[in-house]
Write a structure and sequence with these properties.
The structure is a single chain. With 338 residues, this protein is mostly beta strands. A hairpin with a 2-residue loop joins strand 13 and strand 14. The radius of gyration is 19 Å and the shape is globular. The N and C termini lie far apart (60 Å).
Amino acid sequence: MTERTLGLGYRASGADLPFGNPERAHGVAMEGYFWRITDPAAERTVIALIGVQTDHTGRWALAGLGASDGSWHQAIIPTAEARRAGLGARAAGPGASFVGTDERVVVALGDDARLDVRLEGLTRWPGGRPFGGSSWFQMIPGLNQYWHPWLLGGRATGTLTVGERRWDLVDAHVYGEKNWGRAGFPESWWWGQAHGFPEADACVAFAGGDVHAGPLRTTVTGLVLRLPDGRVLRLGNPVTSPVRAEVGDEHWHLEGHSRGWSVSVKSAAPLSDAHVLPVPLVGQRRAVPGAIEHLSGRLSVRVSHCGHPVWSSESSLAGLEHGGLDRAAALAASRRAA
């Protein structure tokens, strides 16, 4: 067996070596891509997502498009692929298509759900770092879930059409991330992201949940901040930079510490305003309610170093998520009953 074959087999487990490129597809059961657009001037947000599943039925996608006006559209698309040479995924089928890369996102989930934006001036994950958003966990083969916020800022320009409404997006903030794993989504997870601070270049993102591979099982939260001066902090290593998370359906409180840095994130949003987003079921070519998602929550952040304040700010356009099949299914059922 050649060294190249060994390397390909290692990546196919979902893992990446230090200084690897998590943006490229790994070939695991689920490769997920997510773009979030924040337009502070108009006080609105847009999300576009695609999950490419590879299972015994072939390769297919769950795609979705949502906006902070309450709209949400989704589709199961029968033919899909994730890029192995770079960041991106595409899918096409009767009445629905999705193409997303680091340059453009084009979504058509029917005549009344369309997005076409170009991405420019991108602030990517900092180069020269050995690990991505999952930190050293990225080296462990066979995890159920990995996470990498590859895009911490940039400009999105284009149009969103939902029903009879059309939004023109001009130099809106854009964020992008990738998540992947051998078994779809974990049993429980939490997530958040915010632009829309008075400091336009600032960004906050976090993701946490149950992580396991074989006998290894733990709960971990990764927290990433791009400070207004351009510095990028990543906390969440259980020993060296632990992040404590207290999460519910309407609140997300995180406290993290690392080498003199202290970060506090407090977020809230009313359950009545939440979307219920689907998650794909690998091997079944269908989706079920899986996540309670707020598209415009409130998030405040405080950062200090060695006891000295560095940055504090607030956004009212944060994306906030609490995931779990039972929780999301119960909320979806209660809304149908109402």
